[in-house]
Amino acid sequence: MNSKNYTDVLIGGKIYTLGGSEEESYLQQVASYLNEKYSILRRQEGFSRQPEDYQNVMICLNLADDYFKEKERAALLEAQKEELEKETYRLKHELVSTQMKLESARDELAQARAKGETEKSRAKKQ
Q1: Residue 19 near residue 5 (C-beta atoms within 8 A)
Q2: How, if at all, do strands 5-11 and 14-20 pair?
Q3: How do residues 41-76 score in pLDDT, each as one tens digit?
Q4: Of 22, 51, 78, 114, most Cβ neighbours within 10 A?
Q5: How far apart are CA 79 and CA 73, in angstroms?
């Protein structure tokens, strides 16, 4: 069973104790991200004069926006990865096929040379 880690973090000028199975550094990173979002919104004209509920909803909307953008980005990257895997498979198959053709051509060349040498030695004997 994982033990919980607890750490004090500063979010929006207030100290909170966060707990979770993640490392303390991760919890601090999450708090820092929230503070960054809060700071960006506070710089907008009139935001600080809005009711606290409104401010919280705006922060939540910004977080949700980031989440859905990253989710879409992850889906695009996953699709690209799948395409690259398909291309890699195709290229490996093509490489094996080409190597087999090369080996076959080498065998044919060796047989042709052997046949040519045999015919050459027969011609010399006559």
Answers
A1: yes
A2: antiparallel
A3: 999 999 999 999 999 999 999 999 999 999 999 999
A4: 22
A5: 10
Fill in the amino acid letter for 13: G
Answer yes or no: are the C-beta atoms of 28 and 7 closer than 8 Å.
yes
d(CA 115, CA 126): 17
What is the spatial distance between Cα 95 and Cα 81, in angstroms, rounded to a whole number? 21
Helix axes 24-42, 52-125, angle to 10 degrees: 120
- Rounded Cα distance, 80 and 71, in Å: 14
Distance from C-alpha of 53 to C-alpha of 48, rounded to nearest angstrom? 11
User: What is the value of pTM for the model shown?
Assistant: 0.68
